[in-house]
Amino acid sequence: MERSNTYGFQKVFGDLKTNIRSYTMVIALIIIWCILGVLTKGVFFLPRNLSMLVRQTAGTGIMTLGMLLIVITGGIDLSAGSAMGLLGGIAACCQVWYGMSVGATILTVVLCGVLIGAWHGFWIAYMKVPAFVATLGSQLALRGVLLGITKSVTIAPMSDAFKMIGQGYISTAASWLTALVFSAVAVGLIIKGRGAKARYGFEVPNWSVVGVECVMVTGLTLAFVFILLKYQGIPIPVLLMLALAAVIVFVMNKTRFGRSVYALGCNREASDLAGLNTRRVEFLVYVLEAVFCGIAGVILTARLNAGASSAGESAEMDAIAACVIGGASLSGGVGTVVGAVIGALVMTSLDNGMSLLNTENFWQYIIKGMILLAAVCVDILTKRKGR
How far is CA 296 from each of CA 130, 148, 290, 302, rounded to the nearest angstrom? Predict the structure, then answer.
């Protein structure tokens, strides 16, 4: 009996170690939050600041979702920040200059995003221009178009309905319902994932570990919503980000297109030989990225209640860093939506924390740059160990 109990303890302990490795980024995020909480003397954890934090994360997170698709294919988009700024500026022009409705404004932005993405996809997928070169050129060109359209002046104000996209909150009842739905879906996915691994003969964690994981996810979700309700509730941009993240999770795991994106990033030649239309897949991921940049631009413009010529500057670096920090590989074939969203939350947390600490701008750039470099080094070292 004693030997059996010892074995059971070792099994559970081993499962916990495995799960800790898989949740390294979550642990790192918690450590970062604790450090920022101490340095800001608790201001970081105030409900108002956490509400602002998640609202700011929404724009970066949505752009990161699109960037993730490109990174998984082994590409990169250096024009994402300029595209977000331009499309946000177009939204402001539609609202202020032409008096368009919210629906017409969003439709115009999405169509312009499709055109920008198609432009990138044409050169990269069909003309074989390196993504770095094509998107670097667009970074400069799109920024120039934005300056030309806005005449380097701020365009404001937006309509009240449009501002709700970036500044609004859902009701208390809707917030709790969202928390319960999110928790139920997360728990269901955890249990379903264990069952799928068991069916295919993979090693699975002990049920006690799964139970602890489910309780932690549910508890953290409910606690976080409780804190947000101490201010005004869950921001509408966060709901948009979660909805888009859910769509991308489904696409990447349950559709042929999603599997093709991973296959393209793992081995382009093998994908071609397998009959995949790699050019079309690559074309579509750039279109999707530009559309997501447009949505992020709309949220930014609505949140600021203005379209500015400087909007989106260096935002693509945050998106790329979020992908890498979240576990995506710049060489392609690896990356998850959950990791990308956590990476975006890490980057926004650093911005928020350093702003609370009144850190000078040059230090913010240095710290974020070093974090990106460290994440890339971890990716490289991990691959070397796997060989």
Answer: 25, 21, 10, 10
